[in-house]
Amino acid sequence: MSLRAETPAPPDSRVRRFTPAERWIHRTTAALMGIVVLTAACLYIPQLAILVGRRELVVRIHECAGLALPVPVLLGLASRAFRTDLGFLNRFGPHDRLWLRAALVRDKRPSSRPAGKFNAGQKVYAAWIAGATVVMLATGVMMWFTHLTPLIWRTSATFVHDWLALTIGVVLAGHIGMALTDPEARRGLRTGKVSREWAKREHPLWRP
Description:
It is a single chain. By secondary structure, the chain is mainly α. It is built from 10 helices and 2 strands. A two-stranded antiparallel sheet has the order 1-2.
């Protein structure tokens, strides 16, 4: 996906993509995820651990942010628009298989990547990060409340938690990198609206 100049389109050529509630859910979740990742880095990278110090405080911030991570999504279920978008994200169709096939062979032609409101890559990312969050929360609780499970379970939970955390960091870096290449998509998350031309080009099956 090529880098495009961030030139605002005329107001009458813009369409609504996200409601204020959806944008706040994304922002709050992103902030909590950022705190979790940064505190994890401070706990596991020796140079950062020495630089930051106060390990006990960092551990508490990491635990509280991790426990709070699902809260924005759970509260967001009160929004009809958010529930509708979750339905779109959870539904795969034949056009999504075409999109994934084109992505695998690096075919960047818009005609080869049909997409509804969310493309197949966004659907895969949403499903993966949701599953990873559940696993991280479960393993984190086992590590925090040591009296709940046997030692062998806690040892396994620590192994899964640490390696999945590394994977999440890599995936998040890729997610942010993709977002940086598409200023119109970022504007949609910032303002709730995108240009009609962008919507037709990137999400031709979407009917706003």
